[in-house]
Amino acid sequence: MPVDFSGTWDIVSNVNFEGYMVALGIDFATRKIASMLKPQKVIKQDGDCFTIKTFTTFKNYESLFRIGEEVKEVTKGMDNRSCLTVVNWKDDKLVCVQKGEKKNRGWTHWIHGDELHLELTCEDQVCKQIYKRTP
């Protein structure tokens, strides 16, 4: 049985977010604002159906998906690009591939202890984020 990602998670570490945003082509002013934010994720998992809501004081973003089902997504929380997105299980990790204008784009989520790990990739940049579960 895959791990249960459900819960509320607060960011505690955010490495190379600037490099990731540059690879996405996000403008300087937005990058400066985004780099100061402390996102909170609320994840609801019902079998293979997921809702991931990311909340900040600047922008909020919601992602809805079913494991293995490719969907057309507009990345409104980041760079407003259209891409074909599919999320699959790889062991106990959620692995997302986003096919579109940017190469090597996607993310991987996994849980280690009471931490939610997120690696965001775009082109040659990798951003590593860690979230702690909110009691």
Q: Quick one: how many beta strands? A: 10
- The SSE string, one letter per element, is EHHEEEEEEEEE
Radius of gyration: 14 Å
The helix count comes to 2
Oligomer: single chain
C-alpha end-to-end distance: 24 Å
Structural class: mainly beta
Word description of this protein:
The chain has two helices and ten strands; from the N terminus they run βααβββββββββ. By secondary structure, the chain is mainly beta. The chain has a ten-stranded antiparallel sheet with strand order 4-3-2-1-10-9-8-7-6-5. Strand 8 (105-112) and strand 9 form a beta hairpin. The longest helix is centred in the N-terminal third of the chain and has 8 residues, at 17-24. It is globular, with a radius of gyration of 14 Å.
What's the helix and strand layout?
Layout: E1 7-15, H1 17-24, H2 28-35, E2 40-46, E3 49-55, E4 61-66, E5 71-74, E6 82-90, E7 93-100, E8 105-112, E9 115-122, E10 125-133
Antiparallel strand pairs: 1-2, 1-10, 2-3, 3-4, 5-6, 6-7, 7-8, 8-9, 9-10
